[in-house]
């Protein structure tokens, strides 16, 4: 069994997920990640001889709970352990609840919440045997403040924060920490639908005067996963430039 640390990151093929994969590799982790389809980023990793043995990627639909459990099992078989789980994969379906399609509601809950619970259960079983581990859930400021048009997305992220606190209570006595990061608006696929005017409006409302970038969120996750946060658990770290002050 390898003694090198292993990180499992959901949705690691692009955007924040890809940046988290790069960060963990830079910290010396081996990384297991999945997404529904491959991307140029994943193909580059697979072709890089210096990283090929340190990365496991599989095509997995995050709404398929059996596939999620299978992926964790594959990661454990390949690397021998899981030290860090980052529940990153999510979708944001915008729209007024009264007219939202049922399948969109179900897909949002399945990927944003149920998948995180299933992955946390599967990984925590490995961590309990190891006697150590860390889980970081990617939440959102929409769990802190209400915004029209994202009620279902907000519900999943609010539930994820509650899940974080309760799971921290369960796993803390066994040396496993559970925290969350709640990003504000940052450049990503989810914010891609915002117009330049909307982004300018958000920047004006933000005390630090700008949207976050991916690096701001990655640094927060890295901190919570590090020994510098060894006495922090059950906490949601808001990374929003002060917009929820």
Topology:
Layout: E1 6-10, H1 15-26, E2 30-35, H2 40-47, E3 55-59, H3 65-79, E4 84-87, H4 102-130, E5 133-138, H5 151-171, E6 176-183, H6 196-205, H7 214-225, E7 236-239
Parallel strand pairs: 1-2, 1-4, 2-3, 4-5, 5-6, 6-7
Helix pairs in contact: 1-7, 3-4, 4-5
> Mean of residue pLDDT?
93
How much beta, percentage-wise? 15-25%
| Distance N to C terminus | 46 Å
CATH architecture: 3-Layer(aba) Sandwich
Helix content: 40-55%
Q: Please count the beta strands (DSSP E, at least 2 residues each).
A: 7
Radius of gyration: 17 Å
Helix-and-strand structural type: alpha/beta
The CATH topology: Rossmann fold
What is the string of helix and strand elements? EHEHEHEHEHEHHE
Low-confidence stretches: none
Largest sheet: 7 strands, parallel
Question: Can you list the strand order of the major beta sheet?
Answer: 3-2-1-4-5-6-7
CATH superfamily: NAD(P)-binding Rossmann-like Domain
Q: Given the structure, what is the number of helices?
A: 7
Gross morphology: globular
Describe the structure.
This protein is α/β, with parallel strands linked by helices and 245 residues long. It has a single domain, classed as 3-Layer(aba) Sandwich (Rossmann fold), CATH 3.40.50.720. The protein is built from seven helices and seven strands; from the N terminus they run βαβαβαβαβαβααβ. It has helices at 15-26, 40-47, 65-79, 102-130, 151-171, 196-205, 214-225; strands at 6-10, 30-35, 55-59, 84-87, 133-138, 176-183, 236-239. A seven-stranded parallel β-sheet has the order 3-2-1-4-5-6-7, with helices on both faces. Strand 5 (133-138), helix 5 and strand 6 form a beta-alpha-beta unit. The longest helix is centred in the middle third of the chain and has 29 residues, at 102-130. It is globular and about 50 Å long. The protein starts with 5 loop residues before the first strand and ends in a 6-residue tail after the last strand.
């Amino acid at each position: 069994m390898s003694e090198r640390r292993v990180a499992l990151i959901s949705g690691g093929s692009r955007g924040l997920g890809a940046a988290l994969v790069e960060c963990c590799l830079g910290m010396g982790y081996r990384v297991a990640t999945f997404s529904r389809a491959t991307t140029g980023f994943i193909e580059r990793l697979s072709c890089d001889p210096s990283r090929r043995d340190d990365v496991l990627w599989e095509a997995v639909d995050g709404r398929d709970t059996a596939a999620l459990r299978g992926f964790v099992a594959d990661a454990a078989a390949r690397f021998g352990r899981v030290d860090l789980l980052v529940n990153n994969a999510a979708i944001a379906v915008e729209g007024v609840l009264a007219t939202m399609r049922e399948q969109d509601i179900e897909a949002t809950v399945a990927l944003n919440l149920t998948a995180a619970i299933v992955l946390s259960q599967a990984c925590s079983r490995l961590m309990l045997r190891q006697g150590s581990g860390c889980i970081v859930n990617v939440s959102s400021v929409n769990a802190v403040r209400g915004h029209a048009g994202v009620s279902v997305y907000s519900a999943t992220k609010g539930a994820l924060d509650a899940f974080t606190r309760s799971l921290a209570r369960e796993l803390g006595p066994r040396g496993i920490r559970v925290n969350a990061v709640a990003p504000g608006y940052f450049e990503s696929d989810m914010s891609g639908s915002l117009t330049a005017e909307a982004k300018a409006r958000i920047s004006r409302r933000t005390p630090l005067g700008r949207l976050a970038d991916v690096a701001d969120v990655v640094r927060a996750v890295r901190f919570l996963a590090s020994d510098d946060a060894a006495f922090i658990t059950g906490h949601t770290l808001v990374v929003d430039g002060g917009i929820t002050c």
